[in-house]
Amino acid sequence: MKLHCAGRVLDLATPAVMGILNVTPDSFSDGGRFLDPDDALRQGLALRAAGAAIIDVGGESTKPGAESVGLQEELDRVIPVLERLRGACDAILSIDTLKPQVMREAVAAGAGLVNDVMGLRAPGALAAVAEGPAAVCLMHMQGEPRTMQQAPHYEDVVTQVSAFLAERAQACRTAGIAAERICLDPGFGFGKTLDHNLALLAGLDSLAAGPYPVLVGLSRKSLLAQLLGRGVEERLAGSLALATAAVLAGARIVRTHDVAATVDAVRVAAAINQAAAAARRNAGD
Ligand code: PT1
Q1: CA of 117 to the centre of ligand 1 (A)
Q2: How many helices (H) and strands (E) does the chain have?
Q3: Atom 16, ligand 1: which residue's CA is nearest?
Q4: Catalytically annotated residues
């Protein structure tokens, strides 16, 4: 499986790690640390050195309860960081945004992937991606960040999330975005209870069996507080367990704060997947 990101081809035969670079004052685990563009550049280079194939730059927090930021504020945060990273780092750059104008300017500044937790539902977002060369990550979210955790409800979370993502992928294709430019994300923690998140992880193999690569973001999320009772700085082991489970189920991109440790977990899980594929070939099916 491959993802075509603005002239670069990301080979996902072995799963890739996406490192998180938050340029926000309020992100849930590292808010305010990389607001200065030169600090953000250093952090981006560190994520790359630790093994991230993709660096995901975000200027608006979408964690539960987060408030939105204005267009100019978001541009002022992310564009200088993308411009610096483009010149200094060979990772694929990703822009985590909901706003079509940020998508456009970020791609012009070097982003090869648009990571949209709204799945390009904002007016003009499909066109903003279609007119450029970047890939897109379509994520599922029920509700909006400020209120999405108030009363999440599904009849069948795996079926509904899969149907939503299939519909958004089709909307992209209709807008002129090639299949090779699309990846999908079930949106762990976005309008989901603990049971919903666990059901999605347990059913991830069915989404991963489809035509599009699957990205997962589980790093340090509050489902680990619910499962383990741990604070945000104490969730590495739990996050690695979730990343391992996701790759065993077929996830191709893992979004994380903790790149070096996650690269190891992903490599272990990928080796198990390869052994499973070899065993299937030997059995002749
Ligand atoms: C994600 C993701 C993202 N998550 C993609 N982009 C965040 N593609 C930002 C909690 O429960 O999963 N996929 N961009 C961060 N969002 C959250 C959500 C952070 C929930 C924390 C929680 O703690």
Answers
A1: 8
A2: 10, 10
A3: 63
A4: 221, 255
Separation of CA 220 and ligand 1 centre (Å): 9
Cβ of residue 115 lying under 6 Å from some atom of ligand 1: yes
Radius of gyration of the chain (CA): 18
- Which of left, alpha, beta for 250 (phi over 0: left; psi -120 to 50: alpha)? left
Q: What is the pLDDT of residues 74-118, one digit of tens each?
A: 999 999 999 999 999 999 999 999 999 999 999 999 999 999 999
Q: Is residue 197 within 6 Å of ligand 1 at its C-beta?
A: no
Ligand 1 pocket check for 139: Cβ under 6 Å: yes
Domains defined along the chain, listed by start: 2-284 (3.20.20.20)
pTM of the model: 0.97
* Contact present, 190 and 152 (Cβ < 8 Å): no
Q: Which residue has the tokens 């080796």?
A: 271
DSSP state of 46: H
Residues 6+ apart with CB under 8 A from 61: 22, 24, 26, 27, 28, 31, 145
Q: Are residues 117 and 187 in contact, defined by beta-carbon separation less than 8 angstroms? A: yes
pLDDT tens across 132-164, in order? 999 999 999 999 988 899 999 999 999 999 999
Is 27's pLDDT higher than 80?
A: no
Dihedral sign, CA of 151, 65, 59, 15? negative
- Ligand 1 pocket mutation pick from 255, 256, 257, 262 by most atoms within 8 angstroms of CB: 255
- SS3 labels along 220-272: CCCHHHHHHCCCHHHCHHHHHHHHHHHHHCCCCEEEECCHHHHHHHHHHHHHH
Instruction: Say which range, 57-66, 165-174, 215-224, has the weakest mean pLDDT.
Output: 57-66
